[in-house]
Amino acid sequence: MKLLMRISLLISISVFVAGCQEEAKLPEKSVFKEDETVQDQEPLKIGFAMDTLKEERWLKDRELFEQAIESRGLEVEIAAANGDDALQIAQAEEMIQEGIDLLVIVPHNAEATAAIVHKAHGAGIKVIAYDRLVKNAEIDLYVSFDNEQVGKLQAEEMLKLVPEGNYVYIGGAPTDNNAHLLKKGVFDVLQPAIERGDVHIIYDEWTEDWAPEQAFAHMLEALEINGNQIDAVIAANDATAGGAIEALAQAELAGGIPVAGQDAELAAVQRIVDGTQTMTVYKPIQQLSERVAALAVDLAKGNAIEPTASINNGKSEVPSVLLEPIAVDIRNLESTVLADHFHSAEEIDGME
User: At the topology level of CATH, where does 45-139+285-323 sit?
Assistant: First the structure.
């Protein structure tokens, strides 16, 4: 009987001790959940690795993207490599090591920056290609304007003004995938007129790093080779258009030959008002920066996104969101660039 009582007592003590141990564990679980909640409340940090800040357009992108990220209560770290591939990779690596939650990249070299994507993914960080596609890498998302459409708009406007004649094409940087997309759009539109013999491409060159001084040299060469017999110029952006127009001015031809550009830079808009540049293509980059900021938050949190297109980058079909560009000339300058406060009338010399 005494033995049974002792066994019963031992069982009761064991149950009691086990119960105490379970109760002792409860605060630990509760503390873990509270810590997890604190971590969740810490702001996400977005890295923005930019190619360059040497052009007006990219200064605007930097400012607008920073505003879009910070307005959502997030942190942003921004670095620009100014055309140095090795530096851009090093800057991105530093962001990754510092523990960013997502990387947004404007690549200088579409292929070299694939290394950045691999390193980010190795650290569990997703990557968005901003405006320019990274090639040969598993990019999580590409957000840009429809760059083929930009080229098409340029060519369509030129054909309206010059349905027949000698055309000069001054391309962008061959390392930039956008430059290839722009050229494809231009020549898709021009090809029927070329095949009919109405349009003759008498000069066609890439421009390293989109440098205006190289575009100036290209235009001088085109004028010399063809004895100034040029009827239209399509330049890949407003910076290269500016270089071309400077060369035309030196030959006393500025304003007499239609010139197309893109980006709606202030200098280009001023040239449109002055009559030395015919048109530009306006890409409302505030829409771009806002869209990328919103998508960056969704990707970082693991939320579903809805791409509008799929673009092959040589490695995979990249989910993409493409925004619509707008052709701008003197007729719709007020309803586009000015209405969006992209530039003010006070900034544009000669406008009231």
Answer: Rossmann fold (3.40.50)
